[in-house]
Amino acid sequence: MTSLPLDIQEKIELLLEKTNKQTLSKASNTLSSEYKFRIESPQLSSDEACLAYLAVRLPATYSSVIRVFQEIKDFEPQSLFDLGSGPGTCCIAAFTLFQSLE
Question: Which letter does DSSP use for residue 78 in this model?
Answer without folding.
Answer: S
